[in-house]
Design goal:
Strand content: 25-35%
Structural class: alpha+beta
Shape: flat
Low-confidence stretches: none
Order of helices and strands: EEH
Mean pLDDT: 87
Radius of gyration: 21 Å
Number of helices: 1
Number of strands: 2
Strand order of the largest sheet: 1-2
Distance between the termini: 63 Å
Largest sheet: 2 strands, antiparallel
Helix content: 40-55%
Length: 66
């Protein structure tokens, strides 16, 4: 039994924009656009990096105590 699934033609995109002015001569502006899948991929990478860093710090702290 097969069911037809309707997927959107294009993925929903999330957009963010920020502007920071520090003085009359110094200002920064940034724009970002990402899909939900990309956001999930970034979150997975960041969490795995933080977890592996915590493990490395824990192991090095144990060896330093010896």
């Amino acid at each position: 039994m097969s069911k037809d699934v309707d997927f959107p033609a294009t993925a929903e995109r999330h957009r963010a924009e920020v502007s920071v002015t520090l003085s009359k001569r110094v200002s920064f502006s940034a724009k970002a656009e990402i899909t939900s899948g990309g956001l999930l991929a970034v979150a997975t990478l960041v969490s795995s990096i933080l977890l592996s860093t915590a493990v490395l710090v824990s192991v090095s702290a144990r060896r330093a105590r010896r």
